[in-house]
Design brief:
Blueprint (H helix, E strand, L loop, with lengths): L1 H16 L7 H11 L8 E5 L2 E3 L2 E5 L2 E7 L26 E6 L3 E6 L4 H4 L2 E7 L1
Parallel strand pairs: 1-4, 3-7
Antiparallel strand pairs: 1-2, 4-5, 6-7
Length: about 130
């Protein structure tokens, strides 16, 4: 019984250590700058170390949001699952994906391959 509890505790600790950490966002911005990628005119979300940076954002209706993967080795996707949108294709380091928001509301999104294991989730609020 003790070994089962110990194993469960280790699993819980390992899961917690993989939770998204918004403190990596300044590092993501620095990496984006170092890569010399073109900055979009509109809102930008960086994907880095299993984190959406920023993890929460508010935009005006009609905005086109650009997601850029600045991770050096990992592919990601963006999926507005609760809104019934299809998951984006996986995009690889230095790739980008854009989507437009016309309807006000709160849109929770996740990275298809990393939301359960690494808690890679975000929230986008769209205002009038």
């Amino acid at each position: 019984m003790r070994s089962v509890l110990l194993a469960a505790g280790l699993l819980l600790a390992a899961t917690a250590s993989h939770a998204a950490d918004p403190s990596v966002c300044p590092e993501a911005e620095a990496r984006f700058a170092k890569l010399g990628l073109a900055r979009p005119d509109g809102p930008l979300v960086l994907l880095y170390k299993f984190t959406f940076c920023p993890p929460q954002m508010t935009v005006k209706a009609g905005a086109t949001v650009t997601f850029v993967n600045v991770d050096p080795r990992t592919s990601h996707s963006v999926w507005f699952k609760d809104a019934g949108r299809e998951e984006s294709e996986r995009f690889f380091p230095e790739d980008r994906w854009t989507t437009r928001f016309d309807t006000p509301g709160e849109y929770r999104y996740l990275c298809g391959p990393h939301w359960e294991s690494d808690k890679m989730v975000g929230v986008l609020r769209v205002e009038k």
